[in-house]
Design a protein that fits this description.
Number of strands of chain A: 4
CATH architecture of chain B: Orthogonal Bundle
Order of helices and strands of chain B: HHHHHHHHHH
Radius of gyration of chain B: 18 Å
Number of domains of chain A: 2
Strand order of the largest sheet of chain A: 1-2
Number of helices of chain A: 9
Oligomer: heterodimer
Distance between the termini of chain B: 29 Å
CATH class of chain B: Mainly Alpha
Structural class of chain B: mainly alpha
Largest sheet of chain B: none
Shape of chain B: globular
Number of domains of chain B: 1
Shape of chain A: extended
Largest sheet of chain A: 2 strands, antiparallel
């Protein structure tokens, strides 16, 4: 993936600059852009097509969010029909569609964030200003599989001994609590042993440095400044109200060159990741065809 | 010098974020504000923890407790809806104090979301579980003495957690804070809320005794969190 060569700070800045306007703006054009950009990027980077279950779940969520708004909000001037004496308006349905697009695009961008910024990258970023928090996060991320393994060992032993094996609810809860309490005993003493060896290796001494495999290159500086410049312009346009969108009483959108510019800028920002990925893919295919 | 920079940064940055958000996201200002409160209230508390001297032993014990509350979701996977994160956070706070409770609660949310998926809800979970730990630490004298008070606290923590997450649900889906929508969200989440409250009480009754004893033991043996 092309983004593996980019510094994590740039990746975080990028995802935040895409997600925050998509999360808080009312303009549906921004949501359509964010949604399509996310889908494009995921098509290019995910090795397998999405599972049927995921697609069903996401479409179910979409329909649910669309449906909620007209049930609670009866504003808008185009009445379609009446439900229990309340008007269901076209505007409130469209507002529901906007809400659903917003929710879906933010969900997809969070998925992209999880894919781009692995836990290691996040820890490398946190390491400088929050060293203890980063240490806690990284060691507990390592401890989770270890303790999970211990828990299943404990549970198997208990089952083999014939304790807490069968299906009753109270039995399962007490059994779980017993296993849990046993891992606490096992792990706490293990933790103090680990900390002794940390101390022996000089943890907490003055002047000790940490290593990160991520280097901030010139290309990263260029990318980051482009992202921040786009952010500054977008914030300006958003604050001036030129990207405002009204659903009630009737749909209306600002128009004019500034609005168009803001929309195009956001579209460029949103598709930048997919574009980099696509360019990388084409280059790769081209060089391979020469072999 | 470094401290002065931090203070100036905070004094400029926080109002800038609030006022800037008001200007930029006029219609959805409340959603922005809620997210900001969740993020910004975690930062100073984690920062206070960073500034404190803590030994490698304390850090490793906290890391183990965070991992424990995350795998608790797996140990009790046979019983749907039963997650011991809140109970573990409260028990840690009772033995090790509010700061440790905050750290375990908020970082448990962060770590478990590496498995269950991060999203805009992560800061809210960190905030809710962290504050539960902090409060339990502040109230630890009465809570340790009185079992009934502990159960009531656990049930309230479950309700509080659910209600906090509902604020986010409403703000995210609607943009503004509509009381009617909030009431509907709370009503829709009622079975979940009840489940949280009941499971917290059950876990506290089952685990406070044995786990609390073990935490007290290691605290005394290694001289932690003095």
């Amino acid at each position: 993936m092309a983004y593996e060569r980019i510094h994590p700070a740039v990746l975080v800045a990028y995802v935040l600059s895409v997600t925050i306007p998509a999360m808080f703006s009312l303009n549906p054009v921004l949501h359509i852009a964010a949604f399509s950009g996310a889908v494009l990027f995921l098509i290019l980077t995910e090795p397998e097509p999405p599972k049927v279950r995921t697609v069903l779940w996401l479409s179910g969520l979409f329909l649910l969010v669309v449906a909620v708004n007209p049930l609670f909000s009866h504003r808008g001037q185009t009445e379609l029909f009446f439900l229990n004496g309340h008007a269901i308006t076209l505007e409130s349905i469209l507002y529901g569609v906007r809400n659903a697009l917003c929710v879906l695009s933010v969900l997809l961008w969070c998925r992209i964030f999880n894919q781009m910024v692995s836990s290691e990258k996040l820890l490398a970023l946190l390491g400088r200003s929050f060293p203890k928090t980063a240490l806690l996060l990284s060691s507990s991320l390592r401890l989770v599989p270890l303790l999970r393994n211990r828990a299943s060992q404990m549970r198997d032993t208990q089952k083999e001994l014939g304790l807490y094996g069968n299906g009753e609810m109270a039995d399962r809860i007490t059994g779980g609590a017993k296993v849990f309490s046993m891992i606490v005993t096992w792990s706490l003493d293990h933790a103090t042993a680990v900390s002794s060896s940390m101390k022996a290796r000089g943890y907490g001494l003055k002047g000790r440095t940490t290593y990160t495999p991520y280097r901030f290159r010139k290309a990263d500086a260029l990318r980051l400044s482009l992202i921040l410049a786009a952010d500054a312009v977008l914030i300006g346009i958003l604050a001036s109200g030129k990207l405002a969108f009204q659903f009630y009483p009737a749909l209306s959108m600002e128009s004019g060159p500034v609005t168009m510019f803001g929309l195009i800028l956001y579209c460029l920002l949103v598709t930048a990741a997919a574009f980099t990925e696509g360019k990388n893919r084409i280059q790769w295919d081209y060089y391979r065809s020469k072999i | 010098m470094k401290k002065a920079i931090t203070i100036i940064l905070l004094a400029v940055l926080i109002p800038a974020l609030v006022i800037g958000g008001a200007l930029v996201f006029r219609d959805r200002f409340y959603a922005w504000l809620a997210l900001l409160v969740a993020v910004l209230s975690c930062i100073p508390l984690l920062y206070a923890f960073e500034r404190r001297d803590s030994t490698a032993k304390e850090l490793m014990v906290l890391a183990v407790l965070i991992a424990l509350s995350v795998i608790g979701r797996i140990v009790f996977a046979a019983i749907p809806g039963f997650k011991p994160v809140t109970a573990v956070t409260i028990i840690v706070a009772l033995s090790f104090g509010g700061e440790a409770g905050f750290v375990v609660g908020s970082l448990s949310a962060a770590v478990s979301n590496f498995y269950f998926g991060h999203g805009p809800w992560t800061p809210f979970q960190m905030f809710a579980w962290g504050i539960i730990g902090l409060l339990a630490g502040l109230l630890r004298k009465p809570l340790k003495k009185n079992r009934i008070a502990l159960c009531v606290f656990g049930a309230l923590a479950g309700v509080g957690y659910s209600v906090t997450m509902d604020v986010w649900t409403v703000l995210w889906a609607e943009g503004t804070f509509v009381l009617k929508g909030y009431a509907a969200a709370i009503a829709a989440a009622l079975p979940l809320t009840a489940e949280y409250a009941v499971s917290n009480v059950v876990f506290l009754l089952l685990l406070t005794g044995p786990v609390g004893k073990k935490l007290e033991r290691i605290k005394k043996k290694e001289g932690l969190f003095q």
